[in-house]
Specification:
Layout (H helix, E strand, L loop, with lengths): L2 H29 L7 H26 L11 E2 H9 L14 H4 L2 E2 L10
Antiparallel strand pairs: 1-2
Helix pairs in contact: 1-2
Length: 118
């Protein structure tokens, strides 16, 4: 693929990533409005999972087109890392884990990757 084609793919994937990120922000806002036990909340969680998988696919395509991945994760807790990992697999609702507050709320420092040039 030539550099012009890669640039075109990056432009399209940047836009798709932006819209998927906005979708997830809207879903997060709606999730706060409804009780966890509600059918509506469960449906939003399922939709969010599909949006997350689509976003990860777009991010992988951006990397193949030569985009810089940038910051991969801000400072967060172990619980957030586990929840994020659950979101990367198809049957996410079948994964269960035992939550221990003293471990789950431990903060992990985020990192920025650097490209190695020869």
């Amino acid at each position: 693929m030539g550099s012009a084609a890669r640039a075109g793919v990056r432009g399209v994937t940047d836009e798709a990533q932006m819209f998927l990120t906005r979708l997830q922000l809207e879903i997060d806002e709606e999730l706060r409005e409804f009780p966890r036990a509600s059918v509506y909340h469960r449906s939003l969680v399922d939709i969010d999972h599909l949006a997350t998988q689509a976003l990860h696919s777009v991010q992988r395509l951006r990397l193949l087109a030569g985009s810089w991945p940038g910051i991969q994760r801000a400072d967060c807790t172990f619980r957030e890392i586990i929840e994020s990992a659950r979101g990367r697999i198809g049957p996410h609702n079948r994964v269960e884990y035992t939550y221990l507050p003293e471990a789950g709320e431990t903060r992990v420092e985020g990192r920025v990757g650097r490209l190695a040039h020869d």
